[in-house]
Amino acid sequence: MLKKTFKRGIHPLHRQGSGKNATKNLPIENYVSDSVVIHMSMNIGAPAVPCVKKGDHVKIGQVIGTAGGFVSVPVHASIAGEVTAVEPIPYLGTGNVTAVTIKNDFSDEWVELHPLGSVENVDPSLVIPAIREAGITGMGGASFPTHVKLTFKEGAVCDTIIVNGAECETHLTADHRLMLENSVRIVDGLRAVMRALIVPKGIIAIEDNKPDAIAAMQKAAAGRIGVQVAVLKTKYPQGGEKQLIEAVSGRQVPSGGLPIDVGVVVLNVGTCAAIADAVIDGMPLVSRVCTVTGCVKEPKNLRIPVGTIVEDMIGACGGFSEDPGKIFFGGAMTGIAIPNIQTPTAKSTNGVVVFNEAESRSKDESPCIRCGKCVAACPIGLNPYQIKVAADASDFAAAEKLHVMDCMLCGSCAYMCPARRWLTPSFRFAKDKIVAERKAAAAKGGSDK
Ligand code: SF4
Ligand code: SF4
User: Fold this and answer.
1) Residue 178 lies in domain
2) How many angstroms separate the alpha carbon of residue 343 from the centre of ligand 1?
3) Other Cβ atoms closer than 10 A to 267
């Protein structure tokens, strides 16, 4: 079979099975804690606005935050119980976000749900509104409101939906397990969107290190109109949107462009399952599968209510197996270090990965030896060592000319660098500065009018 792929890329932690061996064969376990902390900034765009107060009793699925605009989604209670706080909390270096704390009464009482029925018979015009009302955002880590992604600008045509089952990040197996255990739901979600947008082709793309998931999805896709499975070579970052589109369709998203510019939309497998839940059962997005692994006694794939605290999840995995160093949301390549174990999970939290102290220690960078390994690794053909020079000199105009804004912060270049240059942090810094400068310029232009 011809396996699809993109140019360049790397094979992180290849010999250790990319850190996935600890959990890839473990079925998903349900876990519910005594309380959750659900913050209102779970999506890219405007935060939700809390609509409950301390002392209220809420049921599972009840709206506790209304959408703050078009690029926003409502937030729902993930457990039943009493609201014990509505207050700002610090969150992942983004400043304070408003959060609703709910104490579980373990009644498991749900709000009344309004199912739309089978995805093959539902009125297609009802699907996108149902996705919005269910509060669905990209569950592969991006957090972009899904109804916005599926609302195209005038004249745009989508002929292919790609379902991202690559899960190329190290350590994570949540999507892998979902494909094994909820394969029909994933196809149902894909079909609902294909019918809503009149898209003829849906392709579920999976790396070849998951042969069991490929077989499960092929079985689930059999006989479903327009749905097929594509097998990808195992390579990082195969699950990056642009890399996936290039691998599956041969199309290249232009610099600064979007997948829809080449007629494609990419949805994560978890997002598709959530869409099926919303259509078939009328169920909002209140839980997700999350891999908990690294230095914990019993690594697991847990289905958790949104807002579950990391400390509770570590406890559900038997506690730390050795002194923790850093804890990440996500895998080793693109994960974000969390400040403490009281941090609550969000709709996009696909992994909690615990590194020990030795693994967490930063290594000093040394001078560039011009080996070019970073250039050979970059999946979008950038010149990382030159961008690094420009970024470190705060020459953001030069960094922009070198296309730093196309950098997806995948970390492939830094992984390969023998001089341990801190490439990705420099690129993130430059991108943030350029975005801030653009915003300031736009505001100045507006005030001059
Ligand atoms: S972090 Fe940016 S520059 Fe480095 S490999 Fe990834 S896309 Fe290329
Ligand atoms: S991989 Fe590191 S040492 Fe080699 S050229 Fe790139 S930045 Fe320099």
Assistant:
1) 14-24+114-281
2) 28
3) 26
